[in-house]
Structures are given as C-alpha cells and as structure tokens.
Write a structure and sequence with these properties.
Length: 339
C-alpha cells in the first residue's frame, strides 16, 4: 500500500511522507506511537480533498498548542501571543474558503488527542461563526476561546486523561474540574477577553441544565460556549480514543441532531440547525460506493435538502470506468459509503 497523506507528529515533524510504500516496520512503529490508522491510496487523488484550513496551518497550530500547554503544565503562565498568531491564520483561511467541510481529515495518535482536538474544535467553531455571520473581531474572540477550551486538562492527571477504560466516579469528578481549572488559567490574562475565558468554563454546560460545572441552561450559557459545545461534541465523537473507536461523520451528525431535539435538549437547537445546514458529511473529493454498487466522487452539497450531496458517478457496479461520468444528487447519505 502507498501512503496517501503525510503522517505528522504532534509537534509538526514529518514521520512518513505521502507516496512511500508502507512497510511492516513502519506500521509497527506507528502503532507504538499510538496512531490508530493512516490514509492509503494515490497521493495525487488525496490532494483533491478540499479543506477549510491548510494542513501546514493545522500542524503548526497543533505544535503551538502542545508547546503552550506543556509550558503551563510545568508551571509557566500561558503565552497568548503565539496562540493568537495561529488563530488569526485559521480565521483568515476559513473566511477565505467560505465553506463548511467535514470531516477534518487528520489522524491523531492517542496521546496527541487534546492538542489536535483543540485545533479541530477551533476550526469548526470558526466555520459556525462564519455561518452565523459574526464580524471579524467576534470570530477571533470565538476562535481563541475554542482553541483554549480544554486548557484546564493540563491540571488533570495523565492517568485519568489517558485511561483506556471508563472512569470511576472519583476520576470523573476530577475530570470535570478541567472547566474550573481552565477558567482560572484564562481569566484576567493579558490579550484574552472574558468571553473567550468563559468558553473554557461553560463548554460542558447543556441547554437543558444537565451540564457542568454550574448546571446553567438556555441563554444563561454564553453563545460562544454553546457553539464550542457543538464543535466539541462532533470532533469527540468522530475521533478514535484510547477506550473506543470514533464513529463516522454521517453517524455523528445524526447524534448531534438528536441532542438538540425537544426530547433531549442538550445542545442549542439554533446552533445545531446552523451546523447541519452548512456541513457536508463527506468532503469533496471523497470516493463513495452507492447502494447500486456504482462508485463516484463527492462534488459538494446538494441543493434539495440538508442531507443531499452531489456525486459524480465514475465506475459501474463491476468497477469498469464509465465512458461518460454522470452527476447525480444523493438525497440520503445512508445509500453511500466511503471507500
């Protein structure tokens, strides 16, 4: 098999370059480093996957978050300036793309989860802010709060953060304190607004009052925190963790829709409706097999319904290339699976 996408470490170093033939020794080494999977296939085809933020920007952001969090863990104060610089780049790139595209196609090793998750939540939150028509200054405030929403986890013992099994009641109570730790680290910090600091404090509050740390409800939860709660939930569900596999983007969107329903009421309905109306569950360029057996490529979001996508059908059910590819609208993504 050929590596379709370059594999990076959390600090941005290239571990394996796209195009190399994957050897057993490479697989063994990546497993030991905690990587759950890699992308295989044609690197040229992989380049057609359009993303809202360049891979180089994402990797630089992850490296900055990791370095900043590690310094706080060692007792230093949080340095806002380098984080603000990468946040500005993320906002600029998302605004210029003007598209909300899922999934975010990085694969993280288990112990890099917090850093990659922080950056992904930032990107998704900015996408939502753009869809909600936030002005530039508000977008940057939201992005700072989003990328730092989990900074309080630096105060949580690693044996709890990386435990490959469900947490005990005592461990879970300690884990929940990361919202308080984060707020204490961020409030009053130079160059960081109070609104951004409240994201760390409130991103686990729920609209029906079932969240923590204060069991706030509805509009009592800051809008930034309600946005980040949706982004956080999506990325957490689709990511592989030490104790469970992630689910597909399409499956996660169904769960998010349910969490905003009248029966559940956990996530803000308006934010979720905005999210669902603006995302493509599979990225343009993704190859999918239809329930007819035909194979095509995702072109983008369809016009007829929230769940529809445009697909260019290129191969028949026997795998033979079509003389003339056809473009169709798939109304329900349950009839298409990524291949």
């Amino acid at each position: 098999m050929q590596l379709a996408r370059t594999v990076y470490s959390a600090d941005g170093r290239v571990l394996l370059s796209a195009g190399v033939v994957i050897k057993d020794s490479y697989i063994d080494r990546l497993r030991k480093l905690g990587f759950p999977a890699v992308y295989v296939g044609d690197p040229v085809e992989a380049e057609s996957f359009k993303e809202a933020v360049r891979e180089s920007t994402r990797r630089r952001a992850i490296a900055v978050v990791k370095e900043s969090f590690d310094e706080v863990k060692l007792g230093s104060s949080l340095k806002i300036e380098p984080i603000a610089q990468v946040v500005n780049d993320i906002v600029d790139e998302v605004v210029s793309s003007r598209e909300v595209i899922l999934p975010l196609t990085d694969i993280r090793s288990h112990d890099d989860y917090t850093f990659g998750h922080s950056v992904n939540v930032c990107i998704i939150s900015v996408m939502l802010g753009v869809a909600l028509e936030f002005d530039d200054l508000t977008l940057r405030e939201l992005a700072m709060g989003a990328i730092l929403h989990d900074v309080g986890k630096v105060k949580v013992p690693e044996e709890i953060l990386l435990k490959p099994a469900p947490l005990t009641s005592k461990e879970w109570n300690e884990m929940k304190k990361h919202t308080l730790y984060g707020f204490d680290l961020l409030r009053g910090g130079d160059g960081l607004s109070s609104r951004a600091a409240h994201v760390a404090y409130q991103h686990h509050e729920r609209s029906n009052g079932s969240g923590y740390p204060r069991a706030l409800a509805g509009d009592g939860i800051h809008q930034f925190a309600r946005i980040v709660a949706v982004a956080d939930t999506y990325d957490a569900m689709t990511s592989d963790r030490v104790y469970r596999k992630g689910i597909t983007p399409f499956e996660s969107l169904k769960v998010i829709k349910e969490l905003a329903s009248d029966d559940s009421g956990q996530l803000d309905k308006y934010v979720v409706d905005t999210f669902l109306a603006n995302v493509v569950p599979y990225p343009p360029g993704a190859k999918v097999r239809l329930n007819t057996g035909e194979v095509g490529m995702i072109l983008g979001k369809g016009e007829y319904s929230r769940d529809s996508v445009m697909v260019e059908v290129k191969y028949d059910a026997s795998g033979r290339p079509l003389r003339k590819p056809t473009i169709i609208t798939v109304l329900d993504m349950r009839v298409a699976q990524m291949v």
